[in-house]
Design brief:
This protein is α+β, with helices and mostly antiparallel strands. 75% of the residues lie in helices and 8% in strands. It is built from 5 helices and 4 strands, in the order αββαββααα. A hairpin with a 5-residue loop joins strand 1 and strand 2.
Length: 215
């Protein structure tokens, strides 16, 4: 894309030069330009230095009829290309957001419908939390039963067998993992509630912009 832009710039410059050459023969155009020392030059023809530093096309009355900027350095050209790419990416992102907003408003034509959509997401998370809570209670009970049996054996001065010790350690790991899972789900739900507040504000803004009459 950068190569094409450069080719187009050269082509435009060539067309400008051709137009000026024609103007010189028929309208008496001259070319005014400054060199890198700031010295002003006037020429009857378009010179390489004029193209390099940029020039003004001046008519017989001394008025500037067209200005052509100086050639960019490779570094400046790269910077300009990057700026153009960034602007294009920004415009693309804005268009994508506009399309997404239009689809959102089409899917949820009013605020009540959007609230139902948000609540459905919370309901799904709540169901996951309840499932983990039930499983955690079951795993905690299993661990309590193992610990109780081991404690009873120790009270009767019996040695707790290795398989039971291993089972207790394994069950503790299960319980720890389940508690961590539950905490992650609860944290995710709390964050979702915060996110949904921002999403609702965005929905209202998008809806207001959509309903705003065009002039």
């Amino acid at each position: 894309m950068h190569k094409l832009r450069f080719i187009f710039s050269i082509a435009a410059l060539a067309l400008s030069a051709s137009a000026y050459a024609q103007g010189t023969s028929s309208g008496g155009l001259r070319y005014k330009w400054r060199d890198d020392q700031g010295h002003v030059h006037f020429t009857d023809s378009l010179t390489p230095d004029a193209i390099k530093y940029g020039f003004d096309a001046v008519n017989d009355q001394g008025l500037v009829v067209q200005h052509v900027a100086r050639q960019l350095t490779p570094k400046e050209r790269d910077a300009a290309n990057k700026l153009a790419a960034d602007q294009a990416a920004k415009q693309h992102a804005e268009q994508e957001r506009a399309n997404a907003d239009a689809q959102m408003i089409q899917a949820y034509p009013d605020e009540a419908a959007y609230k139902i959509y948000q609540q459905q997401a919370l309901d799904t998370m709540d169901q996951q939390i309840r499932t983990v809570q039930l499983n955690l209670r079951s795993q905690e009970k299993a661990l309590t039963d193992l610990l109780t049996r081991a404690a009873d054996m120790e009270r009767t001065q019996k040695t707790v067998p290795k398989f039971m010790v291993d089972n207790i350690a394994s069950q503790r790991t299960v319980v720890t993992d389940q508690r961590a899972t539950l905490q992650r789900l609860q944290d995710a739900r709390a964050q979702t509630v915060k996110d949904q507040a921002g999403q609702m504000a965005h929905y209202r803004d998008a809806k207001a912009a959509f309903n705003k009459p065009t002039q």
